[in-house]
Design a protein that fits this description.
Blueprint: E1 4-8, E2 12-15, H1 20-33, E3 36-39, H2 50-63, E4 71-77, H3 84-93, E5 96-101, H4 121-130, E6 134-136, H5 150-165, E7 171-173, H6 179-187, E8 192-196, H7 198-202, H8 206-209, H9 226-236, E9 243-245, H10 254-257, H11 272-282, H12 289-301, E10 309-313, E11 317-318, E12 323-324, E13 329-330, E14 338-339, E15 342-343
Parallel strand pairs: 2-3, 3-4, 4-5, 5-6, 6-7, 7-8, 8-9
Antiparallel strand pairs: 1-10, 10-15, 11-14, 12-13
Helix pairs in contact: 1-2, 3-4
The chain binds N-carbamoyl-L-aspartate and zinc ion (ZN) (2 copies).
Length: 345
């Protein structure tokens, strides 16, 4: 008999939908698997206010196919000029679920990000007061810091002091990639959580560089050494409620990835759940998958868990070499591979 696993319907606590034709092409992949998703605000220009977030939310909702239930949860992109009152009003209205800290220059469309956390201290204090979570891209950007060290240095220089100054602030350390991040999250209080992507559970840095440069394996923070991948697998499957599913699905068209300056980001939305559950199966932790995928995120954000369920079955599914990305095709994570688990229809 086919092995199956039924869990509460999961959510994706970190992803990128982009806008326009690309957004309309990618949203259905996420809505097929997840009830809700935290939508990152790094559009060009970025979603910096609650009014912009409300308009973006409506464009996403219009891209969800008939008969599918899916709720986008919106975030605002913090800049040196962010108005604390607007963040608080957006949070109170239910338009904003969280705000996102991009250190200026850290990643895709982060040029308008925060140049120094000192500039948003007042905004963060207000967020701590009202219980509004802060999502963090945790990398320093100084040119003298090696790209493989940027997350660990961010913990020491920015994140640990911030958490110490503002113990009431809820912080999600997004898409963690190192054993140092795992150690930081494990030893912090209950207001510190972290998302983990499928790619950082599956690949180490060899996947990007061995046998040729593989642009579709490149994202930020960049995949690290094997010891870090193993620490992430252990954290995700540990049963700790501090870790939850956040794909960081980041669609870039094939030509933008296969370029002399290829974009950072892996498009994993089409088979995200299938990718994650494969890891939990390999680790002998299928009994912990529901916590990671469906329970820990809502508990951290203070939101209800989903009422309906999703069933996965241990049966092969082939990932296509490319998928429609609106204006051009996109190469998905696991392109051309056969995964061992699929969504039961
Ligand atoms: C993301 C993107 O393309 O928007 N890219 C990535 O490599 N992860 C941005 C981000 O999450 O840092
Ligand atoms: Zn990021
Ligand atoms: Zn992201």
């Amino acid at each position: 008999m086919t092995q199956t696993l039924t869990i509460r319907r999961p959510d994706d606590w970190h992803l990128h939908f982009r806008d326009g034709e690309t957004m309309r092409a990618v949203v259905p992949h996420t809505a097929r698997q997840f009830a809700r998703a935290i939508v990152m605000p790094n559009l060009a220009p970025p979603v910096t206010t609650s009014a912009l977030a409300a308009a973006y939310r409506d464009r996403i909702a219009a891209a969800v196919l008939e008969g599918v239930e899916f709720t986008p949860l919106m975030t605002a992109y913090l800049t040196d000029e962010t108005d604390a009152g607007d963040m608080a009003a957006g949070f109170a209205d239910g338009v904003l679920t969280a705000a996102k800290l991009y250190p200026a220059g850290a990643t895709t469309n982060s040029a308008h990000g925060v140049t120094d956390v000192a500039n948003i201290e007042g905004v963060l204090e207000r967020m701590a007061e009202i219980g509004m979570p802060l999502c963090v891209h945790g990398e320093v950007t100084h040119s003298d810091i090696d790209i493989f060290d940027r997350e660990a240095v961010f913990i020491d220089r920015i994140l640990a002091p911030l958490v110490e100054r503002m113990p009431d602030l809820k912080v999600i350390f997004e898409h963690i990639t190192t054993k140092q991040a795992v150690e930081f999250v494990d030893t912090s209080g209950p207001r510190i959580g972290a998302t983990i992507t499928p790619q950082h559970l599956h690949i180490n840095r060899n996947a990007i560089l061995v046998g040729g440069i593989r642009p579709h394996m490149f994202c930020l923070p960049v995949a690290k050494r094997e010891e870090h991948r193993l620490a992430l697998r252990k954290a995700a499957t540990s049963g700790s409620t501090k870790y939850f599913l956040g794909t960081d699905s980041a669609p870039h068209h094939r030509h933008a990835k296969e370029s002399d300056c290829g974009c950072a980001g892996i498009f994993n939305a089409p088979f995200a759940l299938e990718s994650y559950v494969t890891v939990f199966d390999e680790e002998g932790a299928l009994d912990r998958f529901e916590g990671f995928a469906s329970l820990n995120g809502p508990a951290f954000y203070g939101l209800p868990v989903n009422e309906d369920t999703t069933t996965l079955e241990k049966a092969p599914v082939e990932v296509p070499a490319e998928v429609d990305g609106g204006e051009a095709e996109i190469v998905p994570f696991h392109a051309g591979e056969t995964l061992k688990w699929r969504l039961a229809s």
